Protein: Ferredoxin
Organism: Seminavis robusta
Amino acid sequence: MCSSIIIANANRPWILPAIALQASTNDNDNDDTSSADDNEEDGSNDGIDLSLDERLYRVRLSRFPGIEWGTDLSFAFVYVRALDPSGAASMSGQVAVGDQLCELRAVIDSDSNKPVNLLGAPFDYVMTAFATLEKGVQDVELVFFRGSQEDLKAVCTGEGAKKESDTVTITVIQNKGSPEENIQTITAPAGCNVREVLTDNKINVYQSITRWTNCKGKQLCGTCIVDITEGSGQTNRKSMDEASTLRENPDSYRLSCVTFAYGDITVETFPPIEAAQWTR
């Protein structure tokens, strides 16, 4: 069986009982100044056992995957903040905004090197791990956790037992304040894309002609604006691009095409928008 590992960023380290590398018996705490090479010694070539949680996945990408990385306020727990639509990660169709980075492994001559544990690692540590890859490395294998940082921490502390029904409830308010106001409740998989769920249920998120001329969820038109009136903390963080597009609107406003629900939320369609949103 896989034993537990120590998350890279902590004075009193997080223990990850379920998502595990084949760990060494070294009980010393990792510190933030340790190198990626030092970290490799903490595990074997097996890396993270994906079978231990279905929210884990491994993907092989170019070493320059087209991912904008983000962190929490402590500059740790690196996650996918945004995707370059033309980048390898976006083109793979597997990586989603909000996914938590767990592991990096270089691919050399079609073989995989030892993995670098990036669970909870500081941002500088993660960037160094990428920057110090050998020049000949063209591809990397990355392990992600599909969920929020809180979900990942809960798993680390043994409090994250997966719910029997891994679903969320999305309450949708349409035409708020008008005689045609309608409230619809939708059950969807945790981590679902809000735009996809709404459009699949024949709910329009576009107020103008972009209902027919939109970018089909590729974050190019900036017109699928909704208001997360409740449960915004159950969604992924905004990227810089999204925040810029919505800069004159309340913080709860989101582009539904890049919003993922990890818990119950309430969504208002057709919220009032400011003049800067000329595409509407």
Q: What stands out?
A: The two ends are 55 Å apart (CA to CA). The mean pLDDT is 78. Residues 29 and 146 are 26 Å apart (CA to CA). The chain has two domains: 5-156, 167-269.
